[in-house]
Amino acid sequence: MSNLNEEQLVDELAKLFGIDPEYYDIFGQRHIPSIETKRAILTAMGVHTATHDQMTRELAAVQEATWRQPCEPVLVQRVGIDGTWSFRMPGEGKEDKAVSIEWSIRDEAGHVLTGKAGPELERADSIVLHDGRYWKFELPLPRNLPVGYYDLTAVGTLSSSRQAHGSLRLIIVPPHCYQPAQTQTDSRLWGVSLQLYALRSTQNWGVGDFTDLFQWTEWAAKELGAGIIGLNPLHTLQNTRPYHISPYSPDSRFYLNALYVDVKQIPEFQESKEAQGIARDEGFLSCLEALNKSDTVDYERVAAVKRQVLDALFVAFEQHHFRKEADHLVPCTTRGEHFAQYLEREGHALEAFALFQALHEQFSRESPPQLIWQDWPEAYRHPTSIASQEFRAEHKRQIRFHQYVQWVAHQQLRRVHERTRELGMPVGLYHDLALGSDRGGSDAWIFQSLLALGADCGCPPDAFAPEGQNWGLPPVNPHALRRTGYRMFIDLLRKNLQYGGAIRLDHVMALFRLFWIPRGLPPSAGAYVQYPWEDLLGVLALESVRHRAVIVGEDLGTVPDVVRDKLSAAGVLSYRVFYFERGDDGEWKRPAVYPRQALAVVTTHDLPTLAGFWSGEDLRVRERLGFYRDESAHRRALDEREREKAGIARVLRREGVWPPGLDETEALHQPLSSDLMCAIHLYVARSPSSLMLVTIEDLVGDTAQVNLPGTLDSYPNWSHKTPLTLSEVKGNSNAKQLARALKAARPNPCRL
User: How far apart, in Å, do the first and last CA atoms of the chain sit?
Assistant: First the structure.
């Protein structure tokens, strides 16, 4: 290794740490990452690359690490397949003979299975390092272990009584993700997708909340026959413009956005005269009226008014449900006991999250405000630091407040989930899991050792972003994740799967490889990093089966066929968007060729609504915001849109769903009619895809796009409200017609 030059050392380390030596973009152009890129990514992974000597030591350490650890950190094994596990230990010379290995396997219930191998164990392999020879042994796993998580510990003993102790996390996984009975028959479900914050109602406080969701779900199930309700990510946000309102760049993916709590439905509201007084105040009511009338969500003001009442409710909660003993609060009611049980279940993870929120509030009040933890005094930049723990001890009540808010959010969302089951919805709530979280948020603070904070993730050049994209999210370090037995990934899935029957994984390609961009460099300087996809898919399948939740993988963009094949074999549904489902000739694909194992939609939050697409509203917005280089570019986009609309009309006629009596020339040059809206959705509904979603925007014919990629504050991203309340939607003729058509095309197989 000492004979390698620096460039060769970087290449060798890059190979060991899974950095791809090349990649091809969507245009087929080959890219070879530079040495500087590889070096920067290695550094972000925690590899020392500053000097030749450092890299030489790192390379030796990586190559020897496996031999010096008796067991791998984790082993993921498919159920029903005979497997083996490895044990390594140092020997005392070439003539080492008698070796025995005793092991025990503890399951999640505490049951222990023990065994012993030896003394005449066959050596599977060996190596001589500078401090002597190391032996490797392969031992069979016990047969018929059921799916689940196990802790395996082992002790290897040489004849001379020299011992080696090792442990590994054993995960036995099912062959594929959960597949409900309805999706295994000819049944094809449909449902409605919505942005929860966007829901209007007469009862909410300027933002859609869990009570609105409960009522929408009840109506969709009972009146429309919907089997699924799609949601935007409900992750914790800071709820401040312009950077911290996107649900795809959350503060934390583990906890819920407090903005969605309906404070009036918290039991303490009936116990708190202070909270009731606030809610009756004329100034407060005037503020609520303005928030409700606004066509966009005012995140900061909504957060402020809800926080004012939540503070009062927490005071009432402590007064009515706890008594003070010494320096501790002790539950004195059933509700208090339930909260204590919740804290015990959530444990250290929730406490760390709440500690961050309390610290964030503390430093946000400084002058000037320190809004991201990287700007806090250095002593507080780690959750286990002395200063952080002293703060925790001194601010127990502030921390308990944030735990309380998560508890009431959990209760309200859980109530909606349970109602979907009572209503007989085959899937129920369909959640969205963001790819990552904000580098200035609580996840990044808590999981610093698992995230590569010196890099961003994004994508290379494609048709929609010729320069590539940088999403500004720190990627998970796959090697650190594996060293910890995938615990963060497991916990993340459990948190997000507990409230519904399906979940969408944003950018599912991240299970296989992710495009890393060194901080401060453009996307063109990025490279792909490989992830342990077989292990991650196995864990995903296990948690999916345990939670009885369907998994949908957002596989848009450049996704190799082999990856789609692996996802399909694992029972992960593909995500098919009508706008993109075209052949090489540009013609829209027939519904019959959509895969059965898929969720089909007409549009998404990042694309124009169907009414907006047909009227060209999205093109007018882009023109107004200066997206086009000149008028000729704008004209080409308009011409292309006319060709696309003509192509849609052509395939609708071919499929036999063009509305009878509708004049094509007239339809192409007027706003989208309800008949044509239905026809396009029926076209998609005819596909064999087991799930289909229609957006609320399309249900009511809204033209405003949810999010316009490439903008920050020039467009009201993640803020636009639905134009109608639920009661108004119930009487809307467009919604009624579309719902009737989809209900007939895809009847719910479950009776209410």
Answer: 69
Residues 6+ apart with CB under 8 A from 626: none
Backbone Cα Rg of the chain: 28
Could you tell me if 605 and 665 are in contact, meaning their C-beta atoms sit under 8 angstroms apart?
A: no
| Number of C-beta neighbours around residue 130 at 10 A | 6
188-425 has which fold? TIM Barrel (3.20.20)
Supply 362's token pair.
């503390």
Alpha helix segments (H runs only) across 270-379: 273-280, 282-293, 299-321, 334-364
Q: Find all residues with CB under 8 Å of 590, minimum gap 6, and list them.
A: 651, 654, 655
Torsions phi, psi for 667 (to 5 deg) = -65, -35
Residues (pLDDT < 50) of the chain are: 751-752
CA dist 246 to 240, 250, 436, 476, 705, Å? 10, 7, 12, 20, 14
Same fold, 80-173 and 188-425: no
* Cα 432 to Cα 504: distance, rounded to the nearest angstrom: 5
Measure the CA–CA gap between 303 and 287, rounded to whole angstroms: 12
* pLDDT of 749: 67
Residue 624, helix vs strand vs coil = helix
Cα dihedral 593→661→225→588 (10° resolution): 20
Q: What is the 3-state secondary structure (H, E, C) of 403-465?
A: HHHHHHHHHHHHHHHHHHHHCCCCCEEEEEECCCCCCCCHHHHHCCCCECCCEEEEECCCCCC
Which residues lie closer than 8 Å to 284 by C-beta, 6 or more apart? 278, 305
Q: Which amino acid is at 603?
A: T
Cβ–Cβ < 8 Å for 444, 451: yes
Residue 464 is predicted with a pLDDT of 67
Name 509's Cβ contacts closer than 8 Å, sequence gap at least 6: 555, 557, 559, 563
Give the three-class secondary structure for 735: helix
Q: What b/e sequence results for 339-371 when a residue is b if at least 16 CB atoms lie within 10 Å of its CB, and e otherwise?
A: beebbeebeeebbbbbbbbbbbeebeeeeeebb
**CB 21 within 8 Å of CB 14:** yes
Going by DSSP bridges, is the β-strand pair 691-695/469-473 parallel, antiparallel, or unpaired?
Answer: unpaired
Helix axes 273-280, 299-321, angle to 10 degrees: 150
Q: What is the pLDDT of residue 384?
A: 97
Quote the pTM value.
0.96
Q: How far apart are CA 531 and CA 536, in angstroms?
A: 8
Cα separation, 99 vs 154, whole angstroms: 13
Q: How many CB atoms lie within 10 A of CB 668?
A: 14
Q: Are 13 and 42 in contact (CB under 8 A)?
A: yes
Q: State the CB neighbour count (10 A cutoff) for residue 575.
A: 22
Please state which CATH class domain 80-173 belongs to.
mainly beta
| φ, ψ for residue 658, nearest 5 deg | -60, 135
Q: Where are the domains of the chain?
A: 6-66, 80-173, 188-425, 574-743
Q: Could you tell me which residues come within 8 angstroms of residue 594 by beta carbon, excluding any fewer than 6 positions away? A: 576, 581, 600, 684, 687, 688, 689
- Helices (DSSP H) in 472-616: which residue ranges? 478-483, 487-497, 533-547, 561-569, 610-615
Contact 231, 215 (CB under 8 A): no
Phi/psi at 602 (5° precision):
-85, -45
**Cβ–Cβ under 8 Å, residues 249 and 438:** yes
Contact 679, 655 (CB under 8 A): no
445, 354 contact by CB (below 8 A): no
Helix (H) or strand (E) holding 381: none
- Smallest CA-to-CA distance from 487 within 635, 666, 348, 661 is with 348
DSSP code per residue over 484-515: TTTHHHHHHHHHHHTT-SEEEETTGGGGTEEE
CB 316, CB 274: distance < 8 Å:
yes
